[in-house]
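Q: Predict the bound structure with D-serine.
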Amino acid sequence: MNDEKIFKLIENERQRQNEGLELIPSENYVSTEVLRAMGSVLTNKYCEGYPNFDGLDGDDDAVLASTDAGHRYYGGQENTNQVERLAIARARRLFGADHANVQPHSGAQANNAVYNAWLQPGDTVLGMNLAHGGHLTHGSPVTQSAKFYNFAAYGTKDGDIDYEDLEAKARELQPKIILVGYSAFMKVPDFERVAKIGAEIPGCLLMADMAHVAGLIAGGVHPNPLKFGFHVMTTTTHKTLRGPRGGLILSRGIVGNPLKKCEHTLENIPTLIDRSVFPGTQGGPLMHVIAAKAVAFYEALQPEFKEYAAQVVRNAKVLAEELQKRGFKLIGDGTENHLILANIKASFGYDGKILERALDRIGLNLNANAIPNDTLPPFRPSGVRLGTPAITTRGLGEAEMVQIADWMARVATLCVDEENHDEQFDKMREEVRALALRFPLPSEQ
Ligand code: DSN
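A: Predicted complex:
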């Protein structure tokens, strides 16, 4: 039996990815090995519980030397225990954490598990304003966590965190969590300053949602919040980190037995989080995805990944400068990471969705995005967001960034009456395709 319809769609998507250029800053292209692990028989296995956490400090061989049965509710775990142990050990090594929980199915699940581990209903969390670049799971009223907890927001000023606002609100509200994290923010946060503010508040957990920049942290080109007194870092594994879609929680503190209750202290946060992920908020872990996370962490530990992370940032800087030269007004006047946010309304007089759709026509994919204090609605916001993690994986460098800025500027001038410019759009589509095919996806190489 062959499900032709689905496999045809997958083939079409492979072709779309290969013939276009992915500028959505939260996407990336995984390696063949990551794909192989995801498409493996590990998907057949139930593994509720955790492996044994002893002996995770050494190298991979030392980790595999321990064969303790761990804390699972089903038999047949001799391979899956080792897969999860390798994933945990590599994640700890990569981020200098005392503990890693590799089971969250997504970044949202990871964040919810941390809230559930540390908060009581009604407790206050202070995070970045969604309208200034924060994330839905940091307190948007449409989320489940916003029903349980009291979210307050600090803002941004000139594209950076408004630290005075953060400090004043932290003093006034005495939050149980201060959260630094975002999905549209182009600066490097001052973790030290935030950690000092948090340290003055009794029982305040310092949490960093680094989903966007985890790969830059792993590659050594972005500071690591865990080194500045943050207790917890959450992330997705599929953005700059270039693994399978999924979540990850890293923490500092004492690692205990996840089946035993422990005292509600900041020191015990690793165990409180383990208990919150399973059985608190999830059931069986996705072992095929955990294996793929382990593969991605292995790749990120290699020297080439440092070069990749540095090139992501270099490419983003060049792309930002070239866009500015061509009339794009950028929030924060450029970028310090992988991400660029352009105010299309102020640059060209129309909304970001119009440019997003027009760029889709030539095979350049980015997303319309709100800018701070946007006066337009979320489905037709003023800005577009783009970034360089995926195209850098394919090997594009500074020269290609200039070319991309050129295409974007040409489309920006044509898209108000695009129906009159079909020929030019078709020509650019062919140019993008030709460039893309010079830099195939990693799984095509
Ligand atoms: N959807 C992600 C992003 O694009 O930034 C955040 O979860």
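A: The CA atoms of residues 115 and 154 lie 18 Å apart.
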